UniProtKB/TrEMBL annotation:
Keywords carried by this UniProt record: Hydrolase
Swiss-Prot/TrEMBL GO biological process terms: epoxide metabolic process
Xref: Gene3D superfamilies: alpha/beta hydrolase
Domain Epoxide hydrolase N-terminal: 16-126
UniProt GO MF annotations: epoxide hydrolase activity
Membrane-crossing residue ranges in chain numbering: none
The species this protein was found in: Pseudovirgaria hyperparasitica
Active-site annotation: D194 (nucleophile), Y316 (proton donor), H372 (proton acceptor)
Annotated family: Belongs to the peptidase S33 family.
Name this polypeptide is given: Alpha/beta-hydrolase
Length: 396
């Protein structure tokens, strides 16, 4: 039986197989720093709940205790159960090593697809989807080539260049080149949420002859002028209440990332406890239903052990404004063909009519459960929507 790590025959390159192996010294250091880290005393704010003023002291104490006992080696083993690769990509004067997990098919007509993560996520967001696919199919029957890259500066990919500006437009070019190098010049489909949705939009707009379609589960935008005064149903009204609440009380982190990324980067990389509080809050408040604590700790550990939290903030500095390049409200980045999945507890669960202003919407599906981390919260639903959209656009 064929394996999922066999590179397609049409590939222009042979990426290097990669195995995650964090040294024991780094694990020992993380535990020691956690043990020595002090938790601030109880305050009124720290007892109110994460949606009000941030993580509670009770939650942080428990999460700290669990992270001290956390078994990264088990997580590492799970990551390594999937094929992982690294590939060097030339971009201008820079060469970046891009890490990606993948499931390669041996079917001649397999459809190439790529899933793009956001912040504070990682490629691990999509491991539940990869797991469902490898369980349902063999490499001989899998209908897709599935590529899940780590953004530059994240996880096991190279950091972005230090001597010049770098933004998500460059990431879009790099991921497109990755797909070309893997032999998918005849076309592929891209899926993205959070920052990944912006990268996906740029790829779809810049390379419409090769990117056959873009599927999004995030469409962060302000109210389009042509939608002002439009009547909204109850779901849409509820979505805008959540959207406005996030803008007013939940988005301070993003302004810090965009305006003072250096400062917050030093703070977060100085202590795994600081990282746990800062990132843990997002996994507590951006979801429909609570995620397992172990899932949150996986994410914290990955950022800490790869020392990438400070390196991951550049997208906010270069592209946080609502209508900058790649923003979903930017009229210059309307997509020729895209699909959208709406999850009720998304940070910006905006009305369908708003989404439609950002391109030619050919697929739309609403769900009654799920939040910002759809690939983790509802992998089955996201996968169903994406595969339906993929086959719709591939047959055009």
């Amino acid at each position: 039986m064929a394996s999922f790590d066999r590179i397609p025959a049409q590939a222009k390159v042979q990426p290097t197989q990669f195995t995650v192996a964090i040294p024991d010294e780094k694990l020992d250091e993380m535990r020691q720093l956690l043990k020595l880290a002090k938790v601030a005393p109880e305050t009124f704010e720290a007892s109110q709940g994460p949606e009000t003023y941030g993580v509670t002291r009770e939650w942080l104490l428990n999460a700290k205790s669990e992270l001290e006992k956390y078994d990264w080696k088990q997580t590492e083993q799970h990551i390594n159960s999937f094929p992982n690769f690294k590939h060097s990509i030339k971009h201008g004067s820079d060469t970046l090593d891009i890490h990606f997990a993948a499931l390669f098919s041996q079917k001649a007509d397999a459809i190439p697809v790529t899933f793009l993560h956001g912040w504070p996520g990682s490629f691990m967001e999509f491991l539940p989807i990869l797991d469902k696919l490898r369980t349902k199919y063999t490499a001989d029957t899998l209908p897709y080539h599935v590529i899940v890259p780590s953004h530059p500066g994240y996880a096991f990919s190279s950091t972005v260049p230090l001597e010049r500006e770098y933004g998500i437009t460059h990431t879009a070019d790099i991921f497109h080149q990755l797909m070309l190098d893997l032999g998918f010049a005849n076309g592929y489909v891209v899926q993205g949420g959070d920052i990944g949705s912006r990268v996906a939009r740029i790829m779809g707009k810049r390379y419409p002859d090769i990117v056959k379609g873009v599927h999004l589960n995030f469409c962060f935008m302000l109210e389009p002028e042509q939608c002002k005064g439009m009547e909204l149903n109850q779901r849409e009204q509820d979505g805008l209440v959540r959207w406005n609440a996030f803008r007013e009380r939940g988005s301070a982190y993003a302004f810090e990332h965009s305006s003072r990324p250096s400062t917050i980067g030093f703070v977060l990389q100085a202590s795994p406890l600081s990282l746990l509080a800062w990132v843990g809050e997002k996994f507590l408040t951006w979801v429909d239903k609570p995620l397992p604590l172990s899932t949150i700790l996986d994410d914290i550990a990955l950022y800490w052990l790869t020392e990438t939290i400070a390196k991951s903030l550049y997208a906010y500095r270069t592209d946080y404004a609502f209508k900058q390049i790649g923003g979903h409200g930017n009229p210059d980045y309307k997509l020729p063909n895209f699909g959208y999945s709406s999850f009720p507890k998304e940070l910006a669960n905006i009305p369908k009519a708003w989404v439609e202003t950002s391109g030619n919407l050919t697929f739309y599906k609403e769900h009654d459960q799920g939040g910002h981390f759809a690939a983790l919260e509802q992998p089955e639903l996201l996968l169903q929507d994406f595969t339906e959209y993929v086959h719709q656009v591939w047959e055009l």
